[in-house]
Write the structure tokens for this entry.
Amino acid sequence: MKVFEKLLLWIDPQLRAGPEAMAVDEWLLETIDAPVLRIYGWQGDWVSLGYFGGFAAAEAEFPGVDVVRRWTGGGMVDHRADWTYSLVVPRGERLVSARGAESYRLVHTALAKVLTDLENPVKLNGGNNQIGTGLCFENPVQYDLTDSFGRKIAGAGQRRIKLGLLHQGSVAVAVSSDRNSEKRAERFSDFLASQWEVVSFSPNPDDLARRAIARYAWDGWTQRR
């Protein structure tokens, strides 16, 4: 059974700085009326920090790299070498009403099939090898994806509000030589939904700037912990 009946795939063509990248996901969550899979890249060197993560630890771990705090949970993610996606789901969809662990499992089950088909075999992690570090890819939690050596390949963070679910995910790939990005996005859509189509969105730049200033580009938000 697919996670969605219908899905919109948006391969965002614009590279965005961290605060704007996060603002786009917030905008989608507040405006869409169908599930959206967004694939996007970063302008400059960025690390994202989970909602509960420590800013000082991120600065110490990644000196000289810009830090943005996500709206979702999870650890620190180095976006200089990853394939980044967001799944934005409006209320009323089955995934929104599922428990956090179950929604995480459903999305990563689909992603595991994609990565196994296109790249290397991966599996859902049982959650028995957590080490407590704030570095996302050194701390595989339950239903993260790991390779045959136990190395974490994919992780994500989620946030639910009354409007729906935001799932922000990352796959460890060498972006500079990543030739599978579009194919990966299409196969992911295949496994997630019975029907899907490619779409394009044009969020208002002034709206994105307002959201970024109010939260993601504000030191009071980024350095709050």
User: Anything to note?
Assistant: The CA atoms of residues 90 and 164 lie 4 Å apart.
